[in-house]
Design goal:
The complex is a heterodimer of chains A (168) and B (130).
Chain A (H helix, E strand, L loop, with lengths): L12 E9 L6 H16 L2 H21 L7 E8 L6 E9 L2 H16 L2 H13 L9 H9 L2 E7 L2 E9 L1
Antiparallel strand pairs in A: 1-2, 2-3, 3-5, 4-5
Chain B lengths: L8 E3 L2 E8 L2 E10 L4 H18 L4 E12 L1 H11 L12 E6 L4 H6 L11 E5 L3
Parallel strand pairs in B: 3-4, 4-5, 5-6
Antiparallel strand pairs in B: 1-2, 2-3
The chains are: A alpha+beta (168), B alpha/beta (130).
Chain lengths: 168, 130
């Protein structure tokens, strides 16, 4: 059994990557390209790689925008579950957030998971059409709609983990 | 002289240009929209195009995104803010938007459909033949 510093037993996974990075937007495209290439190799499925790298990119962008601590790396994890009846790929992003942003996140996730992915996305599009503050907060609804993943959040005081599970 | 006088926009690896087409104008968007704040860069450009379409009484804009590899959700927001300007126009002012997409780019096939609801009947999605 192999445990890394985050308590994850990586020997359970066919594929595992973990990236730590700072709040610097200019590296987001490179990280997205890296993730897409990794998934391409892991899954051999270009369309799946496209969608998952989009989801990863959106989650990373959110973490950079809303991270409350620039002295702690934002952590991105990708885990590919070993062969079983259903193969799963999980992506997670972890960062510290302010109380206000934790509250906003909880509200947003609660809103978008109330409806079907399509309905939730449509409602967000309509909401953005009526806003003047330039914010979209469309990313999570987009991830859920375009990839049909299971979205989840874990909040431990100010440490936020957002994850998405994809059935392959 | 082109139907609407709009400069090319280049930002990072994003390039947007507008050229004449037989039935109106054609906007070609290539590269990716991944900047942190597309609203400050792209929205003014789209506003300019929208206003010039109206003043030139153009009835069709084709938006060719076949070479737009990636667009973040903030980028989608700029299209939302543009398209929502169309329904309040008078019948005389209204114009059609035809988005030409690439089915090999996965977010094109699913991500764009909800935008049609912003201006019912005024926006079409057309798969590229090329």
């Amino acid at each position: 059994m192999t445990i890394n510093s985050n308590g994850i037993d990586i020997s359970q996974y066919e594929g595992f990557i973990e990236l730590g990075f700072g709040q610097n937007w200019k590296f987001v495209p490179s990280i997205r390209t890296f993730i897409q290439n990794f998934i391409d190799i892991a899954l051999g499925n270009a369309s799946g790689a496209d969608k998952i790298s989009m989801a990863s990119s959106e989650m990373i962008e959110n973490a950079i925008k809303y991270s409350a601590r620039d002295d702690v790396p934002i952590t991105f994890r990708l885990l590919l579950a070993r062969d079983s009846d259903e193969k799963q790929l999980i992506i997670e992003i972890q960062n510290y957030a302010s109380d206000e942003n934790v509250s906003i996140l909880n509200n947003e996730v609660s809103k978008i998971t109330k409806d079907s992915p399509y309905e939730a996305y449509l409602k967000k599009v309509e909401e953005i059409a009526g806003r003047d503050d330039g914010k979209t907060m469309l990313g999570l609804a987009r991830i859920r709609y375009e990839t049909e993943c299971d979205l989840y959040t874990k909040i431990d005081k100010s440490l936020v983990t957002i994850g998405a599970k994809f059935s392959i | 002289m082109s139907k609407i006088d709009v400069n090319q926009l280049e930002e990072g690896n994003l390039k947007i240009e507008v050229v004449d087409s037989p039935e109106g104008v054609r906007m070609k968007i290539a590269g990716s929209i991944e900047m942190q704040n597309p609203r400050s860069i792209i929205s003014p450009y789209f506003d300019d195009v929208h206003n010039k379409i109206l003043s030139s009484k153009i009835k069709l804009i084709e938006i060719d995104i076949t070479e737009l590899q990636f667009m973040n959700s903030s980028g989608i927001g700029t299209f939302i803010k543009w398209f929502v300007k169309i329904p309040p126009l008078t019948d005389e002012e209204k114009y059609q938007v035809k988005i030409i997409y690439n089915r090999n780019i996965s977010w094109h096939t699913k991500g764009l459909a909800p935008l049609l609801s912003l201006a019912k009947g005024q926006i079409d999605l057309v798969e590229s033949k090329g």
